[in-house]
Each structure stands twice: as structure tokens, then as C-alpha cells.
Write a structure and sequence with these properties.
The protein is an all-alpha fold. It has 2 helices and no strands.
């Protein structure tokens, strides 16, 4: 946290970090391995789609 010179930069970073963390945090210990892999692939595809749309 000390590396952020402005509070706005810290707020922007934490908002983006929270979104990405929530997208990929699937608590894999609570589900079977095949189900976890399916959910992980879906999350990754959604993330790639969001990144592709942002570039347009």
C-alpha cells in the first residue's frame, strides 16, 4: 500500500483487483476436480472476452 502515491490510484487498483479475484476465486476445495476445471475454463474465457472488448 505504501507504493501508491495517491488514494485514487489505490482505490482504482483495489476495485480492479477485487473484480479479478472474485472472477477467479472458485474455492476449488469445495467442488470436484472436473467441475472445478470446467468452471475455471469458463472464467478464463469470460476474462479473455472482457479483455478483447476493452481493446475495441
Amino acid at each position: 500500500m505504501l507504493r501508491f502515491r495517491r488514494i485514487r490510484s489505490l482505490q482504482k487498483f483495489s476495485a480492479i483487483h477485487a473484480s479479478v479475484y472474485n472472477l477467479f476465486n472458485l474455492e476449488h476445495s469445495l467442488s470436484s476436480r472436473p467441475n472445478f476445471k470446467l468452471n475455471r475454463a469458463a472464467a478464463l474465457a469470460e476474462w479473455r472476452g472482457l479483455r478483447a472488448n476493452k481493446g475495441q
